[in-house]
Design a protein that fits this description.
By secondary structure, the protein is α+β, with helices and mostly antiparallel strands. The chain folds into 2 domains: 2-8 and 88-163, Roll (PH-domain like); 15-82. Helices cover 45% and strands 25% of the residues. The protein has helices at 10-24, 27-48, 52-79, 147-156, and strands at 2-6, 90-95, 98-103, 106-110, 117-120, 124-128, 134-138, 142-144, 161-163. It has a 5-stranded antiparallel beta sheet with strand order 4-3-2-1-8, with helices on one face. Strands 7-6-5-9 form a 4-stranded mixed beta sheet, with helices on one face. A hairpin with a 2-residue loop joins strand 2 (90-95) and strand 3 (98-103). The two termini are 27 Å apart.
Length: 167
């Protein structure tokens, strides 16, 4: 059995939201696609027409698109109210039977089939129980067991771990 103490800090929640918006969310491809489109159209104006001013404006839009997305994500994360997620420390017990979440005297049980996806970053495991909700298992918060034992347990239950080295 693996036991983890979970206390969501504001910094941990900010990292999770940034991970969700910057890495997992595919909208970044739309931003990059528009930036490339602007660059290609500006190239057309530079090479085949005499309208270099429009080409310069489109280049500026492309640069703006590239830098605007991460800035928007940071602004969205800053506006979040993370106080609603604060509370007493709770514990996750992970075993072959499933996951038990204990908050004070209350406990919730999740079977392995409830886990939709597992992502791993340098600092955390994200065990998704919905499209945008996950248990955040910080690698430094193990009470019993280790991150390697958790990886073995997840693989034993046919959970593919998607590793991200960026965060």
């Amino acid at each position: 059995m693996i036991q983890v103490g979970v206390h969501y800090t504001e910094q941990e929640l900010q990292k999770f939201f940034q991970f969700q918006l910057l890495i997992k969310n595919k909208i970044r491809y739309l931003y990059m696609g528009f930036a490339i489109l602007f660059l290609l159209v500006s190239l057309y104006f530079f090479i085949w027409t005499e309208n270099t001013l429009l080409g310069i404006v489109l280049d500026l839009f492309a640069i703006l698109m590239i830098f605007m997305f991460p800035i928007q994500v940071k602004l969205i994360v800053r506006k979040q109210n993370f106080k609603q997620y604060e509370g007493p420390i709770h514990y996750l017990q992970l075993s072959d039977e499933g996951i038990t979440q204990k908050i004070g005297e209350q406990s919730n049980y999740f079977s392995w089939s409830d886990i939709i996806e597992v992502n791993e970053t340098k600092r955390c495991f994200y065990l998704y129980i919905s499209k945008h909700g996950a248990f955040i298992v910080n690698k430094s918060s193990f009470i019993e067991g280790t991150a390697d034992e958790l990886t073995t347990l997840l693989k034993r239950h046919q959970k593919k771990i998607i590793r991200y080295k960026y965060m």
